[in-house]
# Entry
Amino acid sequence: MTAETVPAAKEAPQPRKSSWKRTALIGLSRYGTIIGLLLMVLFFSINAPGVFLSRANFLNILSQASLTAIIASGLTYTLVVGEFDLSIGYVASFVGLIVTGLMAYEGFPIWLSIVCALALGSGIGVLNGLLVTKVRINAVISTLGIGTMLTGIGFTYSAFPIATGIPRAFTDISLGRIVFGLPNPVIIMVVMLLALWTVLNKTDIGQKMQAVGSNMEAARLSGIRVDRIKIFAFATAGFCAALTGTLLSSLLGSGTLAAADGYLLDAFAAVFLGSATLREGEFHITGTLVGVLILAVGFNGLSIFGAPTHFQPIFKGGILVLAVGMSALARRYAASA
Amino acid sequence: MSATVSAADAWMRIRGLTKSFAGERALDRADLDIERGRVHGLVGANGAGKSTLIRCLAGVTTPDQGSVTIAGNELQMGSPQASERAGLAFIHQELNLIPHFSALQNMLLGAPKTTRFGMIDWKRSGVAARAAAERVGIRFPLDTKVSELSVAQRWLVMIGKALTRDASMIAMDEPTASLSEPESEQLFAIIRDLAAQGVAILYVSHRLEEVLQLCDRITVLRDGRIVSQAERGALDKKGLVRAIIGHAIRTPDARDRLAADRSRQPVFSARSIAWKQAVKDVSLDLYKGEVLALGGLVGAGRTEFAHLVAGLARPEAGHLELDGKRLDVANPSEAVKAGIALVPEERRSQGVMLQQSVAFNINISTLKLLRSVPGLPFLSDAKSRRQAESLVAHLGIKTPGVTTKIAGLSGGNQQKALIARWLNAGTKLLILDEPSRGVDVGAREEIHDAIRALARSGVGILVISSDVEELTLLADRVLVMREGRVTGELTGADITEARIIELSYHDAHDDQGEAA
# Structure
C-alpha cells in the first residue's frame, strides 16, 4: 500500500493532421457551390450566347428564382433553429387558393385578401410551432400532417381552379415592373431577403435563433425561451410560404389546387445547397439565395438546350442529394478540423 | 497488507493495464487477478480509474498498454464482441433494457437463438433464459414488459441476461444505487449464490459498508493505480477510507478563507428543498462574499439541487430565497431574469455553442445591453465586440480574437468564456457545476481566481465539485452531500480532503458508530 506520488506522464499533444489536401477540400466545400454557379453561367454563356446571355433572360431567371427564394428563406429559419417544415409547399398552394377565393367569392378588396392570406400562413406556422414545441410531435410528422390536411381542406374549399372574378390589379402585382424596370417579384424578394437577413444577423431574436440551433440546452441555460424562438421560426416559414403562394396565384392569374406543392423540394434543395456555401454546414440566408440561383440557372439552361421536361426532376433530385451530401461532408470536415 | 494471492492459477489475469486520456493517466499499470466463485470489490473516489478499468474489460475502451488473459487465453482488447465471447458481462447503472420488450425478449436480445426455417423459435430459445431465471430466483412471469418491473426486478433481468449467455464474470456498477434496503439484501443473496455457483463477480460501489459486507476481496484504486488489495476482514471502514484518500494529502494554506458574516442576510437560501429521490430536505444559506461549495460523491444529488435552483426542474417541497425575497422560477429564463445563472457540468453539451464565435458565446445572455438604440431590437456590432473584448481581457481568455470559433479554444478557456457570459448579466447567484473538469492545472488556478474575485465582488457563488482537492483550494465553506442530504459542514481549517471524503461516505453524527 505504498503510494509515491508520481506525476502522470504528460504526453505531447498530437500534432493536428493538416495538409494541403484538407485545406483544398475545405475550400472546395466552402466555395464549391459558388464556383459551380459561376461555371454553369460560363458554360451556358459560351454555348448559348445569344439566348442565355441577355437582359431579358437574366430577368426571367431572377423572376423565377424570386418565388423560390422567398419560400426557401422562410424554410431556412426553421432549419436554423434545428427544426424542419415539410408543410411549406402545401401552405403556399392552400393560401394561393384562399387568396383568390377571398377576392372572387367573398368580394374582399385586394389588400385585405393579401393581409388575410399572409396572416393565415403565419397562423399555420404558429400551429406547426406549437405542435412541435408544446405537444412535442416530431417536426417531420407534424408539418407533414398539417400539410396533408391543408391539401384536403383546399379541395373542400374549391375543387376547381378559381380563375374568374380575380381583379386585374391582383395579377398586375407580379407582372408589373414598378422599380427600375425590374419585375415586382424580384423587388419583393430583395426586400424580404434583406429583412430576413437583418433579423437573423443583426437582432436579438436572430442571435437567439442561432443559439438555439447551435446548442439547444446551452441556449435554454442562457435564459433563452427556446419554445418561443422556435415558434417564431415556424411562423416566419408560414408567412414566407403564404407570400410565395400569393405571388404564384397572381402570376398564374388563378388559384389552383396543388399549384405550389413543388416548391417544397426546390426550397429544400436550395437551403441545403446554401448550407454548404461559405460556411460549414450552417443554414443562412445568403447561402439559400445562392442555392436558389443554382436551381434557377440550371432549369433555365436545361430549357434553353431543349432538354425534355422530365430532365427537370432528375436535375432537381440530383442536386438535392448532391447538396445534402456536400453539406454533410463540409460539416464533417468542419468538425474534424 | 497488499495480499498477493497466488496468481498462477487465477482465472483472469490483468497485467499492466494503462490508459491515458489527453495526457492524464486514467489507469496506470493496473495488475489484478480475478477468480471464479468470488466476489471482488472495486472502490475508489471519483476519477480513480474504476470506470476506465471496467470499460477496458468490456472492450469499449482500448487500453494503451497491458494485457488480460482469461483461463490462459489472451483477451483481444477493444472489442466488445471478444469480451462477450470470453464470458464477461457488464451491468451498468442505467441498465440497458428495452422498456417495451418483455423480460424474456430482453434476456435473449443479441444472444444466439435457436431458429427454425430462419424464424426465431421462441420456445426453444426460451429454455436457456428460463433456466437462468430459475438461478436468479425470478418469480414474475417472463413475458412481463420491462416497463412494468421495479428497478430491483430489472436488475434480476440483467443478471439473468448475463447468465443466459453463460457469463463467467459479471461486473456490476453501483447496483444498489436505486434499490431499497430489502431489495439490496435480496440482491446480495443472489450475488453470493452466483459466486457459489462459480461465477466471478466484480462489484463496484461507493457504499463501503456494503462492499465490506459482501466482497471476498477488495481492491482500492486511486489516481489510476491499484493502491491496496485486501482479503475480507483485513480492512475496516476507516482503513478503507484511508486507502481511498491516500497518504499524501496536500494541505493547502488556510490563507484567505473567508468566514461568512452570518449576522447579515444571506444572498441566497434554500429551505427544505426536496425533489424525487435525488434531493431530500436540503437547506442552506449563502452569505455575501463567500465561495460556498457542495462536496460529495457523484450521484449525491448536488447537480439535481443546482438544476432546481436554476429552474430546470421545480422543487416538490421547500422554497428558495434570493436577497430575502421568495423565489419561484418555472424555467431557466425566469431564473436568469431573477439573477441566477448556471455554468453547467457538461461543458460541450450544455454550455458552449461550438460552431459560434467567442463573442457570440459570451454575449448571448446580455443581448439587451448590446442594442444600438435602447428599445429597438437591433444589435450594435461595435458594442458586441467591445463587451466581448473587455471580458476576454478581464478573465484572461486566450484566444486569437473574439471572432474566433470557440471550438478552437482549450477547455479552460471555453470555461472562462462561459463564466464571462454572466459577468454583465446582473447575476446575483452563479452556480458552477464542476468548474474545472477536463481543464489543465494552470487554467484551473485562473478559473479559481476568477471565481474568488467574483465572490468578493458580491456575487453569490455556489460551486459543485467532485474533485476534493479543488474544494479545499477554492471553498470558504463546504457542505457535503450524501444521498440527497447535506450531511456535514466544514469551515476554515477543517476543510481538508480527508474530512470531505469521510463525510462523503458517512454522516457526521455516525462518525464513530460503525466498526466493520
Q: What stands out?
A: The interface with chain B takes residues 1, 3, 5, 8-11, 13, 198, 202-205, 207-208, 210-211, 214-215, 217-225, 280, 282, 334 of chain A (CB under 8 Å).
